[in-house]
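A reminder from the course coordinator: this example appears on the midterm review sheet, so study it carefully.

Given structure:
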């Protein structure tokens, strides 16, 4: 049996035991949509409908109940064997290697690292920073961190941040000199600080949305760089308009050195997600991190 088969069966059992997709997804440390995809793969593989889903609850079909009764003892044995091995080893240790973009590492991972280290002092966390969409298997990482919209279908994604906005910003001095754009199309008449995708090498098209209307703009300007700090400095110094994830610009926005433009056109998008291949068994170190993140997000929601 492949590791992905075990993961699918464990996900199926969790839904029955927790009563619905939302609670099972929270317990597993995945998003409800990712869990739904896992169950669809299992049903296709087995050629049977396993769950009846309503607005209030999820119940197994007759075939699903039979499957659950057969696999429950085996899954229990697997869980107990893992717990016994960890107890024999003492406190959980080892290495957890995560590939992350520069911004994701700073704004989505970093806030959780201290509390995780306090809970698991023997786990060594290594953050491999790369703005390319790396293959976590080839890069020998346990997981990766990227914006949710960039995840491939065979990856299990666990939300790590709230939805984020891409925003256009400029200095007051630049706007006083060049005017303020009212529509994304106006950017073609402005000096813009460009950036190039690390993967593929093409220039990034700035994306906007308002009232169901989506607009992509290919901008031009005096500077192109993938370095966030350099782009922010250029915008602050009045070289042109820049395009950033909102957290990247918070400090300069708060100080008034730069201001947002085209605000109504800057819609929220999926935030950062921790992802890992759905066909691989989750390491104990990664499972501990996923559980820790889930606990942190629950605590934040209660505040």
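Designed residues:
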């Amino acid at each position: 049996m492949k590791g992905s088969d075990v993961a699918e069966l464990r996900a199926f059992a969790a839904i029955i035991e927790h009563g619905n997709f939302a609670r099972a997804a929270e317990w597993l440390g995945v998003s409800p949509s990712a869990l739904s995809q896992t169950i669809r793969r299992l049903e296709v593989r087995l050629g049977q409908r396993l769950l009846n889903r309503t607005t209030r609850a999820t119940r197994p079909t007759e075939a699903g109940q039979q499957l659950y009764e057969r696999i429950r003892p085996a899954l229990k044995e697997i869980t107990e064997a893992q717990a016994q091995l960890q107890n024999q080893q003492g406190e959980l240790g080892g290495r957890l290697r995560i590939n992350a973009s520069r911004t994701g590492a700073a704004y989505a991972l970093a806030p959780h690292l201290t509390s995780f280290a306090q809970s698991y002092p023997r786990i060594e966390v290594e953050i491999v920073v790369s703005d390319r969409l790396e293959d976590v298997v080839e890069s020998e990482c346990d997981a990766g961190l990227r914006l949710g919209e960039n995840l491939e279908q065979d990856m299990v994604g666990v939300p790590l941040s709230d939805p984020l906005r891409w925003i256009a910003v400029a200095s007051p001095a630049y706007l006083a000199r060049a005017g303020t754009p009212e529509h994304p199309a106006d950017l073609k008449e402005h000096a813009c600080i460009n950036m190039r995708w690390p993967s593929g090498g093409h220039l990034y098209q700035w994306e906007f949305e308002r009232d169901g209307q989506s607009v992509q703009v290919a901008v031009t300007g005096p500077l192109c760089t993938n370095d966030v700090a350099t782009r922010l400095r250029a915008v602050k110094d009045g070289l042109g308009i820049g395009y950033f994830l909102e957290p990247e610009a918070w400090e300069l926005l708060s100080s008034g050195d730069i201001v947002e433009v085209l605000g109504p056109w800057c819609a929220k998008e999926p935030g950062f997600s921790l992802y890992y291949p759905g066909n691989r068994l989750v390491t104990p170190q990664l499972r501990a991190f996923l559980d820790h993140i889930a606990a942190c997000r629950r605590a934040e929601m209660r505040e």
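Residues 25 and 303 are 21 Å apart (CA to CA). The mean pLDDT is 84.
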